[in-house]
Amino acid sequence: MESSRNGYLDIGRVVGLHGVRGKVKVAPFSGDPSGVLAARTLHLSGGRGMEAGAHGDFEVAAAHRAGGCAVFSLHGIDSAEAAEPLVKAVVSVRRGELPALPEDEFYWADAVGCLVVGRDGAVLGEVAAVEPGPAHDWLVVRRPGRENGYLPVVAAFLKRVDTAARRVVVSPPEGW
Fold first, then answer.
1. Can you give the pTM of this predicted structure?
2. For 100, which DSSP code?
């Protein structure tokens, strides 16, 4: 999950159409579509057929999983021609429509801005972003006076993510 604004979280991108009745296929940023299937409204922005800065809210008529994507039928979109302008749009949902996460997981947007500290408590930087990777996600850490550092989001390096306290405890590799 990416940025957070006005109670919405960016959860994925429309990557194509599904069938000829206007269903849109959404690739979730998390890689797992199951958490977004309960969304009742999708906020779409920046589709290839939308004007720059255009956005809109669409009520979900139905949703199901297809492979690694979520497929949505949207009220008012009933043909491939009507859905085509939405391809490449960023999809956001209201935070309240997302499922609660297990204790060892976090939404990416909640980590951005957290202080990054070593196990000894020394401040190492601040989370600038979380980026997806083929094997695991990456924590992008803005380090004072240095280039950004990248830490794999795996237990060996991330010891504790406490988004409520705005703090991430890490054990970076030697020379990081």
1. 0.72
2. P
